[in-house]
Amino acid sequence: MPYPHDDKRDPAWVMRTYAGHSSAAESNALYRGNLAKGQTGLSVAFDLPTQTGYDPDAELARGEVGKVGVPISHVGDLRALFDGIPMDEMNTSMTINAPAMYLLALYLTVSDEHADAAGIDRDELRARLSGTTQNDIIKEYLSRGTYVFPPAPSLRLITDMIAYTVANVPKWNPINVCSYHLQEAGATPVQEVAFALCTAIAVLDSVRDSGQLPAEKFGEVVARILHISSTNRTPALTKKEMRATTSPNFSAGSWPESRTESSTAIAVQSANATSCTGVAPASCR
Q1: Is the dihedral of CA 184, 189, 194, 199 positive or negative?
Q2: Residues 183, 169: contact at Cβ < 8 Å?
Q3: What order do you get walking across the sheet with 130-133 strand by strand?
Q4: Are 92 and 131 in contact (CB under 8 A)?
């Protein structure tokens, strides 16, 4: 068949590197350098103190500041991180969970400052912002452990963020329901997908039951929930390796004989969104 005309081609995929280190200023220089070389979006990695709600000068943050990502503790840090970067032209992914509502609030505050500087309406710029906050706090209890609040308040935070973004930041994906973390904690492919689906169902029920959005908006809620899943498995493990690597949350005896299966990327999302990773289709905006 003939090659489609330009107006019928799919948009180019968003290309972004998961990055962040040392300080907001140094990470900003890295981002701007990558964008100048052709990168088309940003994927922000935060350090562990930021992921667990600690300031860089906290005693428990000692030795971890800026190690696995950028430290962000106030609006000045976020301002420095996006200095000189047109936020309304970016597709920004923020891999952050327990403090996700805080980081999104900082992001929107800085976008308002950009709008003021450009002399445009703040709501107009917010309507153009696209990106994702991982915000899957539920899986933190099962896998990574970077939770801050108990489960019920965490689910409420997720719910409030979804309701707010659907109403005010329509291009933003407020949550990624993540399953590959569960795999890394020892889940089988079936367990991985099952837990992810249970999380998605719980989140959708919570948003519906909160009454913050009218029923006709619920389709937009589903459209803004994404799922990311690993597609490759490591080679088969011995029983000894299973015992050494399996989290107590999962039963070692339930592992399959071979771990070469591909987990099914079952996504609770709209038809125009697909599973998002570091290189994401434009439909995931």
Answers
A1: positive
A2: no
A3: 18-19, 42-45, 91-95, 130-133, 172-173
A4: yes
Q: Which residue has the higher pLDDT, 194 or 247?
A: 194
The three-class DSSP label of residue 75 is helix
Q: Is the pTM here over 0.85, yes or no?
A: no
| Dihedral (CA of 240, 246, 249, 252) sign | negative
Of 215, 187, 207, nearest to 268 (Cα)?
207
DSSP code per residue over 15-64: E--EE--S-HHHHHHHHHHHHHTT---EEEEB-HHHHTT--TTSGGGTTT
Alpha helices in 144-234 (DSSP H): 151-168, 180-184, 189-210, 218-223
pLDDT for res 93 = 94
Q: What is the mean pLDDT of residues 222-251?
A: 49
| Residue 89, token pair as written in the block | 């032209």
Q: Judge whether residue 114 has pLDDT over 60.
A: yes
For residues 42-49, give the mean pLDDT: 95
In terms of C-beta density within 10 A (0-12 exposed, 13-18 middle, 19 or more buried), how is residue 3 classed?
exposed
Alpha helices in 211-279 (DSSP H): 218-223, 239-245
- At 3, the pLDDT band (50, 70, 90 cuts) reads low
